[in-house]
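Next up, sample data.

:::
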Amino acid sequence: MAGSSSTHDTDTDRSSAAWIDSRLVSVILGSLGVLLAATLLQVSFGAYPLTLGEAWRTVFDPQVVFHLGVWRAFLLGGEIPDWLTTRQLIVWNIRLPRILVGILVGSNLAISGAIFQIVTRNELASPYILGISDGAGLVVLLTLTAFSGLMPWLPVLAAAGGAGAFLIVYVIAWKNGTSPVRLVLAGVIVGTVFGSVQRALFFFIDDLGIAMAAQTWLSGSLLGTDWEQVRIALPFTILALVLALAVTRQLDILLLGEQTAKSLGMSVERVRFLVAGIAILATAAAIAVAGLVSFVGLIVPHMVRNIVGGDTKRLLVGCLFVGPALLVGADVGARLALNPVQLPVGIITGLLGGPYFLYLMRKREHIGEI
């Protein structure tokens, strides 16, 4: 009996770790390397320049890293300790929050893109192409321009806008079921309409400062982000990522096709909407703090899938690391490309994502349905 129990435990351990392989480990380590390099570059440049060594020592200063009072001030909005040096304040209170927001936004967009591609069984799907980003963006723009008192509820409001957009897309695409092409076309239509409404709102903005801030936000930018944006996005990001990793089995079944999923006893439409809700929440958390950053949700799942394969858990974990590395790296480029002028990071991701997707289309004969 003891031997049988030991064998069972060993088999369980092996099965629980079966999804971890050398390819996934390589993706994780490579992404962490890119993220570390981008972080040190981002921290080093500015009106208060630092050498890479000074940046390293300040970012990983144990006096700050292991001080609960500092984290309480940053994450809960308390008073910042007065013993922090000028260099520590610049790095930890000004430059690192921008990197942390980039990490949260990159992971959210990559995870949501992967989920939408699985839910629709369409590798062209993404929050941007399905109109989710424009639906959430319209609500955020309305909040920024007309209902600024609702700012603390921005992720929730953005999620409502994204959910409404997805529902409209689904209704338009539905005809005795949906198809990958119909969902993409419906998403393009809905996104175009919502985008037109967003542009129309600018004619009703009298304050030039608000108009410029809204335009920057529509381009997708991390400029001016601080710990407040981290506090807004972090809880919703954690919730979305935990839920996403908890439904990997359902996502694997959805990948088998609707008929197969039904034969296995799954309520396909109910599961599809519930899982899509997770992706909408992740998208909303990203849009609420960084605006409409394009292409990340589309190309990161492709990049990860090409390396680790189609297993859902490996795909999501890979996206969790590659998304932040790509976005933080792109933000370094946005900041330094035309220094001292800082470009919105959404411009850089668009310049990177467009050619990559064209390359993908040229390389593959069939692109569309997974």
